[in-house]
Amino acid sequence: QVQLQESGPGLVKPSQTLSLTCTISGGSVTTNYYYWSWIRQSPGKGLEWVGAIYSGSTYYNPSLKSRTSISRDNGVNTVYLRMNSLKPEDTAVYYCAAGQAVGVEAAEYDYWGQGAQVTVSS
Description:
Largest sheet: 7 strands, mixed
Order of helices and strands: EEEEEEEEEEE
Strand content: over 45%
Distance between the termini: 39 Å
Structural class: mainly beta
Helix content: under 10%
Number of helices: 0
């Protein structure tokens, strides 16, 4: 059973950089079985796929690619999300999820973290 745990700051100021951590247990970040994705949901909106890392390669939502970086640390079985130049519209719950593909439907993912609330405000 894969378990995912997000962590990071709850409040970030506009123009600053967000750093989130997804700690994985019950599975390996190096597996070729799962895409390890970051997904967010803003208030009143649907799921938005941010990006993913799979077998060492990274994939990004084109609309966020210029501000986003996803990486992994094999030694601590962790995936990271960094997003710079934050805006108030980046306020959302950020989820780490594992799936055999990527998309914006919850059913496409086998496992989810509990989510990390990120508020962008001065």
